[in-house]
Amino acid sequence: MIYRLVRFVDTRTGQAPLVKKLLRYVFPDHWSFLLGEIALYCFVVLVGTGVYLTFFFDASTHSVIYHGTYAPLQGQEMSQAYRSGLDLSFQTKAGLLMRQTHHWAADVFLVAITLHLLRVFFTGAFRKPREITYYAGVLMLVLALLEGFAGYSLVDDLLSGMGLVIAYSVVMSLPVFGANLALLIWHGPFPGTDAFQSRLYIAHVLLLPVAIGVLLLIHLLTIVFTHHSQFPGPRARESNVVGTPAWPGYAFRSFGLAFAVAAVLFLLGGLVQINPIWEWGPYHTAQSTNGAQPDWYLGWLIGALRLMPGWEPAAGDYTLIPNAFWGGALFPTIVFLFLFAWPSIERRFTGDHAYHHLLNRPRDVPWRTGVGVGLFVWVGMIFFAGSSDRLFVEMNIDYESQIYVYRALVFVVPLVAGWIAKRWCEELLRYEAHPLRPGGGRVRRTPSGGFEPADE
Amino acid sequence: MRGAPRLLPKWAAPRWAEIAVLWALLLAGAAAAGFIAVYALGADTQWLGLLLGLVFAFLAVAAIVTGKALVPQEQKEQERESLDHEREDLDIAVYVQEVGEGITRKRLLKRAAGAAGLTVVGALLVPLASCGPFLEAEQLRRMAWRSGRRLVDEYGKPLRAEDLAVGSMTPAYAEGVDRERLDASLIVVRLEADDVRLPEQRAGWAPSGILAYSKICTHAGCAVSMLRYPLYSPKVPRPALVCPCHYSTFDPATGGEVLFGPAGRPLPQLPIEVDGNGELRAAGRMSGPVGPSWWGVRQG
């Protein structure tokens, strides 16, 4: 039966050699290689639940009066978009499950991508010949951030609107043409028109997901072309790849991971409330709420916006660079430029143009680990500073004092952390190099009774 | 098939694994049936999520046990193929370059192609200009307020001076203007008249200590919806208007000066007057452009 099916396909496509090769494609085993797979399966859940949501969601800013089943909002004026968000949560069977699972999947998606990026960075997996894979990955992270933001902005609840007006302000703040660009995107001054909602919608459900899908294809194809990288081991060398073949072992394990990711996301979506849009109420430009937070993956940007002192360079009485530019546009640009440029920077510094199929442990390249820890701690500190309003609202820690302290810490802590990381790596290497320590190689007893390292 | 050589190592699946996979599949099926039943009987979100989660959890167990114990286990070592094909790379470059050998006016044609390409791309992009009035930046300076326009509350009722207590904060809108416009909304604060210290050119803008400011933060456009009005604490020196998004803090007593936070220019102030009926009206135009700043906006 299977043989006849294979014969049918091969005699019409001639691709049996390729299929045979793919079935025996080798996957090296390490837990950290699963982070990217988790992101991949989150994307699958996102597409599935997202398509379901489009069957019910109506992306229109047309103003309506609410008469649905949720009593506290009865008689309120709101957009059709927000009403359809409420209706699919309260009146569509399984609607709330799908919406919450979609939201959780987006949050986990970005967690997985971020951890995957850290793994790739600290193990040097971005080195030749995997630069294209790396660039596609970083670009997917950028698009995933935009996609997530567009998604929760669509609902048009109070938090959506507050996020959008901040995005509008950041676009407005771009030097020279910012105001023109904002007018172009929003179809006029904020809050824009119904046309803007259509644009946001098509970006969220078509343009960005397709772009992510194409990059994903490039990401996966280039991995297949170069084969996976691997950690050094008893049998693993630069010239080979050691691991479990796709069929039968790895395929079932990977299906298992896919199911496990879906299980976690649906359990979260069903049992743990996320973004209860009915509690925020509809958005109006003249309304806002204290202690509001975006989804976690934008926390670093809100932190940067909060920390920036009120500095606006001006020519005479005219503002040149509005303040939102520093935290909202320049900061993420610096971070992503660094990530995109890193493979070239490292090549330039080391002069290393060789192939690298064996991964580093973080300790193996202390200066890279130090720089990476510095960068990620910098972003992490700014992220943490974004929660200063929550600490203020919930623990009554004085907001202004927090900001003054953070303004110093975000520069001091990364430098210290980077230096400690580098020293730590160097110490670990020195420790290992000692012949009498585990992993330090063999020793030989000398005739006089001492020990000396034994070269193999 | 018959007579074909073996390819995978001989493998005897352990009994426990077979039993585990069997149970996992049966339980996944049971949970899926439960999901269908719950959906039919009212679709409680928690039960749906729990059951669908269990469906996938049991499938995960089945797949992982299958992959790790049921099917032949093997470690394979494969030599990497070279990614470097210098000969082919050279051929490709030669193919690409030789194609133009017979053309005598290569440079001219290249330039013509470049020029045509640029203009064609330009023509295809031009329709995007319809997306918005991007050249009409003066729209950003529009003012909902004219002398004499009344301040109304969210129900459209005119604001009366006598209803505003000292230390209170009241949202207000321009009568007859779309409230979603950023320039339409105000935050009205009443301070002790003695505490008001407006610059000289704003004399008379705050009758009986009532001050009106744009509600839209000049930093990132959120609604300035918090008033700090210390009654006795010695720690905070003066009342302040605070935006909850990034805590830009403005001084209502001095004309909206920035006290703290990322905002780079003051909150625009609207001069107001109390008319014969005790109602609040605009007594002129806003002191500056409303909303988030942009390149070339006036700072004052």
Describe this structure as you would to a colleague.
The complex is a heterodimer of chains A (456) and B (300). By secondary structure, chain A is mainly alpha-helical. Chain A is 64% helix and 6% strand. Chain A is built from 16 helices and eight strands. Chain A has helices at residues 2-13, 16-23, 34-54, 80-90, 95-122, 131-154, 158-173, 178-186, 194-226, 246-271, 277-280, 299-307, 324-350, 366-385, 388-395, 399-433; strands at 26-27, 63-65, 77-79, 240-245, 314-315, 318-319, 442-445, 451-454. In chain A, the strands form four sheets. A two-stranded antiparallel sheet of chain A has the order 1-4. In chain A, strands 2-3 form a two-stranded antiparallel sheet. Chain A has a two-stranded antiparallel ribbon with strand order 5-6. In chain A, 43% of the residues are buried. Chain B is an alpha+beta fold. In chain B, the strands form three sheets. Chain B has a five-stranded antiparallel sheet, with no helix packed on it. The model of chain B has no long low-confidence stretch (mean pLDDT 93). In chain B, strand 7 (240-242) and strand 8 (249-251) form a beta hairpin. Helices cover 28% and strands 15% of the residues of chain B. The longest helix of chain B is centred in the N-terminal third of the chain and has 26 residues, at 15-40. Chain B is flat, with a radius of gyration of 36 Å. Chain B has helices spanning 15-40, 45-70, 86-98, 106-125; strands at residues 76-79, 151-152, 169-174, 185-190, 210-214, 226-228, 240-242, 249-251, 257-260, 269-270, 272-274, 280-282. Chains A and B meet through helix 5, helix 7, helix 8, helix 9 and strand 4 of A and helix 2 and strand 1 of B. Strand 4 of chain A pairs antiparallel with strand 1 of chain B, so a sheet runs across the interface.
